[in-house]
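Fresh eyes needed here. Kindly weigh in on this sequence plus structure tokens:
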Amino acid sequence: MYENFTGESLNYNLKDYNFPEWALSRIQKKFPQVKKLESIHEVVSVKELGELQAWVSAGCETKEFMSMLDDFLSENIKPLVNNKEFLIQRFGTLRVVIPDQVKAGRLLNYHQGIFVGNGTGLRTIWTPFTKCWGTNTMHMLELDISKEITRRSIMENWSQEFFNNFSEKHSYDINLEPGQSWLFNQELIHGNINNETDITRVSMDLRIMIKGENFGRKYPGQYFRKLYDWRDSEKHDIFPVGSYITYAGWNSKYTKHLPLNLQRAWMDKYLLKHNITINDYQFENEYLNHLPNLQYLTTTVDNIVLLSIYALPDSRDSRKSIYQSAISNNCNLHFTQEDIILENESDIELIEDYLSWGSSYLEWSLNV
């Protein structure tokens, strides 16, 4: 099941895919005092590290990075999954492991990916941007002991401290240089110990999600995107004009437990990002899972901002009626969590592809 992602290294062409150079250049735009990744801890305060990490992760949305990453995945990763279709994590997770990080409360405890909502259909590509060894690198366990520890920790209510100590006894450290990645699946327990070296270790986690498998709580289209989808985003360099409203509801498996304030917080972020002023807040009546108000609203305004494509009806026939009404009435549907605007038939195909990509944690657990 986990062929080529059982804890092994991948060598790649650092000249063609110079992720460390890209990361340093990105950091220097906001933190020009950083001259080397290994000395970040000497010139950036602990309180600023979160801002630095967020800044680099946001850079994953730039066409410069996405172009390099998608080429890297097509060349190096696609053959390892037998050329199966997969999605790629939209924003990489940057790890900055400073010396003595425990003292700053920055230790990444031992865990497995499923603990943090990663389905078994995900594969992780861990790529260090600096040399990593000994205490500053990631430590990992083999699959059999990972499964045993996972089972026992749940059944016996282990503390995190006990979990860390027990895992460390059975772990091995991963020694890599820039130009190498480490490939693993979500059931392998891994974590960090206190960095006793004198350098900062910088690395990035990137995950792919294979089509037809379980994505857990990391939804296709939100957490993941399609390879080279940024080429299609150029059509929205000019944003749709006209009247705007927002729309909330509790009528799908995804939205039924999401409070109104959380839904609106996401939509408000989207409105602010695109400098949009709305005419009104709208909502769907509970129990009307075919979303009749949404379909009606497509006949009255130019743009409707929704939380997600997963806020659409669970029924494909009901979704089809809404799609047809929106397109025939020139109403654009904006899905904030996926950053998708439905304007034509190709947008419908993209949405339906994401909705049918794999199974969620809930769907998977019901079938186990």
